[in-house]
Protein: EamA domain-containing protein
Amino acid sequence: MELILAAAICSVVVSILLKVAKNRGYSPLQMISWNYASASVLCFWWFQPNVQQLSLTDTPWLLILALGVLLPSVFLFLAKALQTAGILKTEIAQRLSVVLSLTAAYFIFQEQFNSLKIVGIALGIAAVLCILYSHRGGSSSAQAGMLYLALVWVGYALIDVLLKYTTGLGLQFALVLNLMFICAFILSLGYILIQHKSWGSGKNIVAGLILGMLNFANIAFYVKAHMALKDSPAVVFAGMNILVVILGVISGLLFFKEKLKPSTAIGLGLGIISVMCLAYAMTA
Structure:
């Protein structure tokens, strides 16, 4: 459980860092770009992907490119959601993206659904609708918050589906992950060079490299937890998602003085029950 807790803490700290950095004059785009530099190096060192699997003809480069575009884009949506909707709602929306990816798995990968998984997905969708409803309002900030929450929800699900499809073609997870990080770094850095005619400021580069270490640590601890508890994947899945949501809620309430509206509280409760149903469905 220590590994799951460490992964959850790293995930929430990434969100806190992005939210605080924006208020301190840092550029989220530059940080996100450079985060993939350290994440790429750490990924190669930690997982040691088999580069012999690379091929000019057989490697799905278009899918890798799509993931390389999606990764920094959705990460930027996450940063925007943190600013406009808060860490509390953003963490719930991010974690409940699993219900969309599971739904896609039913139609794309023909995965079998039991009644518990259907209940979990229905509760998860209801939870997200509650979160979006709680952020309704006529102001441009409220509308932007709803939009970015929805983009985070859909974006992370799309990344999950594409990643699953790519690894299903025969490439190992570590290699796909490394290629994604490298592609995301090159594309986002290229965009910064075109827009600002520079690599980024020193403080943003340093902050981005630290962000990448935390981002990768989240992945590494999560994968290691699955290896340590290989006979209990449901425990890892449920533990990670529930802990991130709870820690995100605590961070929002304590550090950023966010308010827990009734509809948000209902969404939080439904979200936790949803994750528990999906976790139990994995063992059914």
About this structure: DSSP finds eleven helices and no strands in the chain. The two ends are 22 Å apart (CA to CA). The chain has one domain: 2-283.
